[in-house]
Design goal:
By secondary structure, this protein is mainly alpha-helical. Helices cover 52% and strands 5% of the residues. It contains 14 helices and 7 strands. α3 crosses α4, α4 runs parallel beside α7 and α7 packs antiparallel against α8.
Length: 349
């Protein structure tokens, strides 16, 4: 399925998004990708290991940006060598398994593409660390019990489990490279979806919340798509479609999507919109409002005809050019141009 939005406009837009990422606009001097760039002050937010992992996965599918990726990979390698697996400064010493999985996927994919064995080895070691937790406990927790320091606030990322379905990506990649035990761990992880997804397609993103966070809901759908695509599991693909259909029923009048669905109206959030569009296209779904969502992604971008990024919260007065929203959007636009086969499961950032 391709979008009806004018192809020439999408091709130009795709090039602008890709250039923003591959030239390292949001990369710090030490190689880390940062969460966002404040366009008003030209300053970077905090360094973000998880998003550096996403950047590596994204760059593994590009013909440009090798040096940018090497700097990011080297920064991640140096942190891991010092046993620093923490997520980001504001979360203290907490270690998130999801973040480690995204870093592992990035390191393995980038290292495999450019023949850097150290990146692949360190990535596989991270997968082994995650895999051992699954095989030992029979499930995966958001926070690694080996690093007991926890954030002060309970959120979907600290106590929810739906988003962890995307961790199956690094397990399947490691399995393809011969890491023992990954198949069993992947099956155990994907089976947890049956306990987290309702008949409506909605995922429970936090055990006590009355609202659903669409960002992790879509991560869960991505995990099902990855599993279904890798193994030809039509049931998993159908459950991913159910999740997307449910999310699409909450599209905003702007064409974008809110951060939460529940009692109160959620705030429009561009990473969610980009995720929703990307997966709908990869699942080849004919959805009303798809073109308006793609148009919305274009509307909430910031830059010029050479390089553009996605603003995180369109209604905010802050011009935060967000790294992961831009990566997601770039892959979504590429899918709108090229169709459902635009992106193999192992390169989904």
């Amino acid at each position: 399925m391709k979008s009806d939005v004018q192809t020439s406009s999408l091709v130009s837009f795709a090039s602008e998004l890709r250039r923003w990422i591959t030239t390292g606009t949001c990369q710090g001097k030490n190689g880390a990708f940062h969460a966002w760039r404040d366009a008003a002050t030209n300053t970077l937010a905090y360094a973000y290991p998880e998003i550096s992992g996403y950047a590596l996965t994204y760059l593994s599918g590009c013909s440009e940006g090798e040096s940018v990726g090497q700097r990011a990979a080297d920064w991640l390698i140096s942190r891991i060598a010092g046993n620093n697996l923490t997520a980001r400064e504001r979360d203290g010493e907490a270690v998130y398994n999801f973040d480690l999985a995204m870093i592992a996927t990035g390191l393995i994919s980038f290292g495999h593409k450019f023949g850097v064995e150290e990146y692949v080895t360190v990535g596989l070691n991270l997968v082994g660390f995650i895999q051992d937790q699954i095989l030992s406990a029979g499930h995966l927790l958001p926070l690694s019990p080996a690093y007991p320091s926890s954030p002060r606030k309970s959120t979907w990322s600290t106590d929810g489990r739906a988003h962890l379905l995307k961790v199956v990506q690094c397990l399947l990649i490691a399995q393809s490279l011969g890491l023992p035990g990954t198949d069993e761990a992947a099956v155990m992880l994907i089976k947890s979806a049956s306990k987290l997804q309702l008949a409506s397609g909605q995922f429970i993103t936090h055990p006590t919340d009355t609202e659903t966070f669409l960002h992790p809901h879509l991560y869960a759908a991505e995990g099902l798509w990855i599993w279904g695509s890798a193994l030809g599991d039509s049931h998993a693909i159908e459950r991913a479609r159910m999740a997307i259909t449910w999310a699409w029923s909450h599209q905003l009048d702007t064409g974008g999507f809110p951060n939460t669905v529940g009692n109160a109206a959620g705030t429009e959030q561009s990473d969610v919109t980009s995720q929703a569009v990307r997966l709908a296209l990869l699942l080849d779904m004919q959805l009303p409002g798809l073109d308006s969502a793609i148009t919305r992604i274009m509307q909430v971008s910031y830059g010029d005809e050479r390089s553009r990024a996605i603003l995180y919260r369109p209604r905010s007065t802050e011009f935060h050019e967000n790294t992961w929203a831009t990566i997601f959007a770039s892959q979504a636009v590429e899918a709108a141009i090229s169709g459902a086969q635009a992106l193999p499961w192992m390169l989904l950032a």
